[in-house]
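note to self — DONT lose this again. spent like an hour looking for the file last time. sequence + predicted structure for the chain T wanted, 408 res
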Amino acid sequence: MRTYCIAGTGVRGFLMYAKAITERYRDEARLTGLFDINPLRAGYVGQGLGGEIPVYASFDEMLHSAEPDVVIITTVDCFHSFYIRRAFEKGCDVICEKPLAVNEVQLLDILRAEREYGRKVEVTFNCRFMPIFARLKELLLGGAVGEIQSVNLEWMLDTSHGADYFRRWHRRLKNSGGLLVHKATHHFDIVNWLVGQTPEKVGAHGALRFYGKNGAFRGERCLNCGHREKCAFVYRDGETEYIKRMFFDAESADGYYRDRCVFSEEIDIYDNMSLTVKYESAILTYSLSAYNPYEGWRMAVNGTGGRLEAASYTSGIPADEPYNHVAVYNHRGERLVYDMKKIYETHGGGDERMLRMLLRGGSKDKDALRQRAGSREGVLSAVIGVAANKSIAENRFVAVKELLGEEI
């Protein structure tokens, strides 16, 4: 039985990992410690787990006293590399929420620390475990389009999910790397995984067109805002018990507001982005926008033998369709259509399938599609976003080797 500790007791740390270990996977995993920089939040999570899991005041104290085999890191993104290195130093392996890190300095430090201490980090790319993406991988491995030449991927966030990134800590580039790192690392990893090639060069554009200073009015936070009655973006989940306890009742410990205004002038991340990535022999064109009337994605993969088209929607009118559709076209004028019934579990069924692989100790021999992701995969997905941010700031193409050298 492997022992685990969790650094970062937000919603993901609590409901995704802590609940899974203490309830569904307790026969093979044991949770021995919790840590968060906000002790009130950590205390609430400890109570929510029955009061049996020790809550620690410091990360180092937890590593020393709880003696975990693996540390699960679900903190603010910009601190991932710090906690990963400290865990390695104490002889622990790491499971890290995406993105692995937010800039090239942190990415390089993780790679070097992994080699220095002989430990390993796994990155939680749950999209790989969604049945629809697993099916795409199977089709492409089977030669559905021949040799892959290009990928077109459009990702749409709606004004519920999308807006939430502009309320929380994600709204500052220094914390999250913006949506090109925090969110799009999922999307870049999927393309890296499907294409099976290494990204080489990135050119990007980005702008803040809807949130931030674009709003007609603004306040500090929704709770006591004078515009509550007329604002379509008022945050109302603060009335939910666990959100209230984890964030609103814990504000006195760190001053963090969960319901900041989406039109704040301090927001410096983009809500409208597009980029091109050159791989060894393929090209990706990608776009992400965060203020759509519905949410979902569309993808096309072009190859020497045909074209694959797929799409999935999770909100709005397009989400009413009960099936996801994958179509493969070949040069004989044929079309093969695969209708996949939608899965309404969290993240399209990806979370539980990923947890099963991570916590049940599935060997790499059983990982036929190579869905488990290590440091290399984490770095290569995050570095596309890092390069994209640099490309936007400097108005030029950015080579991956410029950021990582020969480390990958």
